[in-house]
Automatic annotation (TrEMBL):
Gene3D superfamilies: 3.30.1120.10, Alkaline Phosphatase, subunit A. It comes from Desulfoluna spongiiphila. It holds the Pfam family Sulfatase. InterPro entries: Alkaline_phosphatase_core_sf (IPR017850), GAG_Ulvan_Degrading_Sulfatases (IPR052701), Sulfatase_N (IPR000917). This is Arylsulfatase A. Residues 9-366 form the Sulfatase N-terminal domain. Transmembrane segments: none annotated. PANTHER family: SULFATASE, SULFATASE N-TERMINAL DOMAIN-CONTAINING PROTEIN.
C-alpha cells in the first residue's frame, strides 16, 4: 500500500513517561522482555537518535503540543495564551480529539495542557496527586520503611539520616495509601489508562469521524512497583536479591547512600515495570488492529525522557531526575512511528527532535501548511506556520538522508547540550553574568533555584563548574570529559550551540 494522505484518517499518540531508550528489546537490550513494543517497532519506523530538547515532563509536552522548542524560551510553565497547539489547529477540521492520561504535572492548576481536547479523561493518583490521599488510613502492616533500603533512611544509631530520609518515607507513605488495596495488575496505573483508552476506542468515539487520540501514561515512571513488589515475590530480573524491594530511593547522590547492589535492584524493578507497561500498551495496539483501524491510523509511541539510574553510564552518580543534567541516559528517547503506506521495519539514524513529531503528525494529516485566519463564520482559526519542527516523512520515505546535523537538549536557564555524530558537548549556565547575557536565554529573571524545574520534590540545582566534551563514538554515555584536551572542538560546539539557540529565539 503506497502512502496516501487521503486514506489516513486517525492519529494515536502514545507517551510513556520516563522510558529510557536502551531499556527496550528493539533498542538492543537483550535482557528485558518487551514483546509488544518490539513487534510494533518491526512494523513501524524506529528512530535511533531521537532527543527531547527542553526537559523534563512539562517542557517536553509543551514542545510536542506546539511544535516549538522550549529550551530558549521557558521551562516548567503553563501553556501560554499565544501558544498554538495541535488541538487548536484541529478545531473546525472535523477531527474529534481525546486526551486520556494520568500524568499529574499536565493537570497542574492553570497549566492548561488539556486545552482544546473534545474528550478529557484524567486518572488520578500519580505523584503530585498523592497528597490527596495523605489522610487515608494506611494498613498498619504496610510500613514505608519496608519498601526501601533501611540504610538509605536510618543511620547506625537508628535515627533518620537527614530531611531527605523523612521526605522519602513521606513520599512512599502517600503512594502506599493510594495503592494499598491493589490486588492484580489490572489495578496498576498503566492498566487504568489503557482500559479507559480501549473503552474510548471501542465505545466512546464517533466511528463516523476521524480522530486524534493522545494517550499519556505516567508509568513506567517511579515508584518502581512492578508486580513482584505487590505479590511479595522475587523480581524476575533480579531473583537473588535479598532485602526490601526499593520502591523509591532518595534524591541524594548515590555515593555513600545507595550501594551498587541496590542500584542494580532498582534497575531490575524498573525493567520489570517496563515489561508490565509493554503488556498493557500491547492491548491498545491490539485494539487498533482488531477494530480495523491499522491501515488508516498513524500511531506514534515515544517517551519524554529517560532516567538516571546510578553510577557511571547508568546515571552519573544519581538516581531519579534530581539534578538538571542533560546526559545521554536522560535526553535520548525511544521514538517509533507507524504511518500507513510507509515501509515498516526501518531504522533511521538521523537526528530528530520531539518538535519533529508534531510537524510529522500535521504533515500526515495535511495540516502542516495551514495558516491562521478567520473562518466564514467569523471565528479565529489557527495554523502551523509558527512550527519549528521538521516533518519526518521525507526521511521515512527515503527522499532525504537527514533533516538535522545535530540535536540539542537541556534545562531552561541551567544547562544546554549539543549532540553531533562525533561528539556531545554540555554547557552549564552557572555564571550569572553569562546567564543574564543576550547570548544566553530569554527570561533572565529566572534564577537557578527556580521553585519548580522538575516534579522531583527533593531535587537540587547543582551543576559542574566546567563545560564538558565527549567522544560520542568511543564514549556514548559521557564518562570521560575531553574538553581540556580539545579546547578548539569544545569552543566550536559552544558557538554552534549558541548560534542555534539564537536563531530559534528569532523565529
Amino acid at each position: 500500500m503506497a502512502f496516501n494522505r487521503d486514506k489516513i484518517k486517525n492519529v494515536v499518540f502514545i507517551m510513556l513517561d520516563t522510558l529510557q531508550f536502551n531499556y527496550l528489546g528493539c533498542y538492543g537490550n537483550d535482557k528485558i522482555k518487551t514483546p509488544n513494543i518490539d513487534r510494533f517497532a518491526r512494523q513501524a519506523t524506529l528512530f535511533e537518535n531521537a532527543y527531547s530538547e527542553g526537559l523534563p515532563t512539562i517542557p517536553v509536552r509543551r514542545a510536542l503540543m506546539t511544535g516549538r522548542f522550549t529550551l530558549p524560551y521557558g521551562g516548567w510553565e503553563p501553556l501560554a495564551g499565544d501558544d498554538t497547539t495541535l488541538t487548536d489547529i484541529m478545531w473546525g477540521k472535523n477531527m474529534q480529539t481525546a486526551l486520556i492520561y494520568d500524568t499529574a504535572p499536565m493537570r497542574l492548576p492553570k497549566f492548561g495542557y488539556s486545552r482544546g481536547f473534545d474528550f478529557v479523561d484524567f486518572c488520578p493518583g500519580q505523584e503530585l496527586d498523592h497528597t490527596s490521599f495523605a489522610d487515608v488510613p494506611l494498613d498498619p502492616a504496610m510500613k514505608p520503611e519496608d519498601f526501601t533500603s533501611a540504610s538509605m533512611v536510618w543511620d547506625k544509631e537508628g535515627n533518620l539520616i537527614d530531611d531527605d530520609s523523612k521526605q522519602l518515607l513521606d513520599e512512599i507513605g502517600c503512594f502506599l495509601r493510594q495503592q494499598q488495596h491493589r490486588r492484580t495488575d489490572a489495578d496498576s496505573y498503566v492498566a487504568r489508562v489503557v482500559n479507559r483508552t480501549v473503552d474510548w476506542l471501542k465505545t466512546r468515539r464517533d466511528k463516523e469521524r476521524p480522530f486524534f487520540l493522545w494517550v499519556d501514561s505516567f508509568d513506567p515512571h517511579e515508584p518502581w512497583d512492578p508486580p513482584s513488589v505487590w505479590k511479595g515475590e522475587p523480581c524476575p530480573y533480579d531473583p537473588d536479591y535479598e532485602g526490601n524491594p526499593i520502591l523509591l530511593a532518595p534524591w541524594t547522590p548515590v555515593e555513600g547512600r545507595i550501594t551498587e547492589r541496590e542500584c542494580e535492584h532498582i534497575r531490575a524493578l524498573y525493567m520489570e515495570k517496563i515489561t508490565l507497561v509493554d503488556e498493557w500498551i500491547g492491548k491498545v495496539l491490539d485494539s487498533i488492529r482488531t477494530q480495523g483501524l491499522w491501515d488508516e491510523t498513524m500511531v506514534v509511541l515515544m517517551s519524554d525522557h529517560g532516567q538516571p539510574m546510578g553510577t557511571g553510564e547508568h546515571g552519573h552518580g544519581i538516581v531519579r531526575k534530581s539534578r538538571p543534567w542533560p546526559y545521554e541516559e536522560l535526553v535520548h528517547v525511544p521514538l517509533m512511528m507507524h504511518i500507513p503506506g510507509v515501509e515498516g521495519g526501518q531504522r533511521v539514524k538521523s537526528f530528530v527532535q520531539n518538535v519533529d513529531v508534531t510537524a510529522t503528525i500535521m504533515d500526515v494529516m495535511g495540516l502542516l501548511d495551514t495558516e491562521s485566519g478567520v473562518s466564514d463564520h467569523g471565528m479565529n482559526t489557527f495554523g502551523a506556520e509558527e512550527f519549528q519542527g521538521e516533518s519526518l516523512l521525507p526521511l521515512m520515505q527515503g527522499e532525504v538522508e537527514k533533516i538535522r546535523d545535530f540535536a540539542i537538549a537541556g534545562y531552561y536557564g541551567m544547562s544546554w547540550s549539543i549532540i553531533t555524530e562525533e561528539h556531545s558537548y554540555v554547557h552549564w549556565l552557572v555564571d550569572e553574568e553569562e546567564k543574564n547575557s543576550v547570548d544566553c536565554v530569554a527570561g533572565s529573571e529566572k534564577t537557578m533555584d527556580e521553585e519548580m524545574w522538575t516534579c522531583t520534590a527533593g531535587a537540587k540545582v547543582e551543576m559542574p563548574e566546567h563545560n564538558e566534551l565527549y567522544d560520542r563514538k568511543a564514549d556514548p554515555f559521557q564518562l570521560n570529559n575531553i574538553a581540556a584536551d580539545n579546547p578548539e572542538k569544545a569552543e566550536e560546539l559552544l558557538q554552534k550551540l549558541k548560534l542555534f539557540i539564537g536563531e530559534l529565539r528569532t523565529t
